[in-house]
Amino acid sequence: MKEQLEAIRKSALESIAGTQAGADLEALRVKYLGKKGELTAVLKQMGSLSAELRPVMGQMANEVRASVEKAIETQSAILAEKAMEAKLDMETVDVTIPGKAVKLGHKHPMYLALDEIKDIFVGMGFTVLDGPEVELAELNFDRLNAEEGHPSRDWSDTFYFDEDSRVMLRSQTSPMQVRAMDSMPLPIRIIAPGRVYRKDEVDATHSPMFHQVEGMAIDKGITMADLKGTLNTVVKQLYGENTVTRFRPHHFPFTEPSCEMDVQCHKCGGVGCPTCKGEGWIELLGAGMIHPRVLEMAGIDPEVYSGWAFGMGLERTAMRRFKIADLRLIFENDVRFLEQF
Ligand code: PHE
Fold it and tell me: SS3 for 109-135, per residue?
């Protein structure tokens, strides 16, 4: 029995010292000291020993148990320390390594221009609205007095989603006029910026996706003078006090009378140059007095209320604001271009 106990001690201490993980250590504890362990098995044979030998063997068994327990404890501490060292090694931060420069982006010039526009209108008491780019043809056309057969409804100009031309990518932000009239109490003063879509080929002045800012005011006694006054105030704040504008008659189905507003070319002062294609003027927006039928369709009495609306091309406005010559630069997102603003 003495040899048995010695053998257990020897093999236990060796295997404990060789463990690499806490789980292995626990397995060894069970193997040697557990209820069905090797040491217990030896102790069970004690009954067959003589009365003199029994206490001697008992004491020896206790010593073996104590030394195995001690070894497990020591090894456990060693493993814990090793684990901690490994963890610290992995998490070492070398504070002397030069840092990576974090490049901070900034707003796109078109959105810088939009922010200025929003600020100007909010300062005049307008609310900024957001609306869907996927729009009902009913709101994009019918409710804006553009009947079936109107050229702008053609499949060659418009991105429709379905065969019967009911759902489309909005071709203008003007359906936001209808959405505002349907959902807001009078009087209404809103602007609504956002993307619009038309089947155009890309060139220096065209893109199948571009941005507009819609504007609308409805109240009692609103006239064309309010429209001109508001727009002149806006362009002067945007482009400078000396900005010269002109209003030309035009046609839109949803305004009557309708007009387009031009600003005098900033390059040549109206004489004519390549920037304004020799015209002396640059077209900025379409506008007009809201057609009585459009008000009626929204349940607003045109005998009591009147209003104006405009739709302005945001790319064009930003191009003039920052003197950008080619529309494609706005969409290419070349950092060398964007960094200049
Ligand atoms: N929606 C028109 C366009 O896209 C612009 C416009 C808006 C004209 C509001 C008049 C009133 O050309």
Answer: HHHHHHHHHHHHHHHCCCEECCCCCEE
Rg, the chain, Cα only:
42
Which ligand 1 atom sits closest to the C-alpha of 177? 9
pLDDT at 58: 84
pTM of the model: 0.71
Q: Of the spans 28-37, 280-289, 327-336, which averages the highest pLDDT?
A: 280-289
AA letter at 220? K
The β-bridge partners of 218 are 188, 307
- CA-closest residue to ligand 1 atom 2: 311
- Please state, in angstroms and rounded to a whole number, the distance separating the CA atoms of residues 171 and 135: 9
Q: Where are the alpha helices (DSSP H) in 21-90?
A: 22-33, 38-43, 53-90
Q: For the chain, what are the domain ranges?
A: 2-91, 109-338
Q: Is 191 in the pocket of ligand 1 (CB under 6 A)?
A: no
CATH for the stretch 109-338: 3.30.930.10
Distance 215 CA to ligand 1 centre (A): 9
Measured between alpha carbons, how far is 306 from 301 in angstroms, rounded to an integer? Answer: 9
The chain-wide mean pLDDT, for the chain, equals 91
Residue 258 CA: nearest ligand 1 atom is 10
Measured distance CA(232)–CA(226) in Å, rounded: 10
Q: Given pLDDT bands bounded at 50, 70 and 90, which one contains residue 308?
A: very high
CA angle 241, 109, 99 (to 5 degrees): 130
Residues 6 or more apart in contact with residue 155 via CB below 8 angstroms? 165
- Pocket residue to mutate for ligand 1, from 174, 210, 216, 259, most atoms within 8 A of Cβ: 174
Beta-bridge partner residues of 24: none
Q: Which residues pair with 196 in a beta bridge?
A: 210
Would you state the structure tokens that stand for residue 147, as one six-digit string? 């009947």
Query: Using one digit for the tens of pLDDT, what is the confidence trace for 152-165?
Result: 899 999 999 999 98
Query: Can you read off the two tokens belonging to residue 271?
Result: 């004489």
